[in-house]
Amino acid sequence: MTELFSRRRVLLTGTAGLAALTGGGFWLAGRGGDAPTAAANWQDPAVSPSASASPESALARSVPVQPGRPGLAHAEVDVLTAPEAGALVTVKTSAWWSWALMDRKTGKIVGSKNFNQTNMTASMIKAWLAADYLRRAAEAGQTPSSTRMNEIRTMIRDSANGPASTLYAELGRSATIARLIDVCGLTDSKAGDGWSTTRLSARDTCRIAHAIGTGRAAGPTWTSYLVGEMRAVRGTGDFGIRKAFPAAEQSRIAIKNGWVDRQATSEWNVNCLALGDDWTMAVLTRFPLSTSWTHGGEIAKSVATQLRTKTELV
Question: How far apart, in whole angstroms, are the C-alpha atoms of residue 282 and residue 162?
């Protein structure tokens, strides 16, 4: 497998703050397996839905990006080897939040102390619905119609809900979540009463992203296609983890985010999944509806920004 391009980072210490970066990198398929075969030929639809504006606001930008515990120089402790990795990332918020980071070369996952606790996934689960459908179609020797492929594209790029509900029903509702747990090796997560209420933990979300990258989730025929669609997420759904990276690198990081206002609990659920070259990352949040939903994306951005100063992995 050939790496598309590599990135070397130089971490600055003391008051210098964030690292200077050059280049960027991403593998369509992950470590530890053969590269998937070329994706089936699929052309962009003649007319794509327009993307809405990115969720940037004064309130969102007010979330502080902390460099870590007082007195801790950047890169002095690598989060992957730290005995209390969760303590190296802090966000000043009253929201519930959880994070996890996977080293795809070794499979090691570190994160917050609550990285095994679950949150309702919202649209983040759409990446799995697409993967499960495409893998099963290929295994059955079926070629999805142009209409179906356009539905999948808008479900991933624009987070359309209609296709998700259709696929969830066709895939057997809770049966697709049972396959998710089995295929991706999840330990904490479980089905809800609908696709949006599936419960995932941060560390399980890292495992899902890795399974997508290696080809286990979508299968060899469609992995490159699915990762490409996740790289192309746009508009309102383009927030969170990859916003911690320079603009030139963001399009090389595959993401799927989820955000929904839960009237039953009077809370926002805002979650982020990201798939990188040698890493996967997840940040899950929930907080009162009285706070702007963009707060969740800025928590994720803050976590990712801090992790980039505490390991050379990302």
Answer: 25
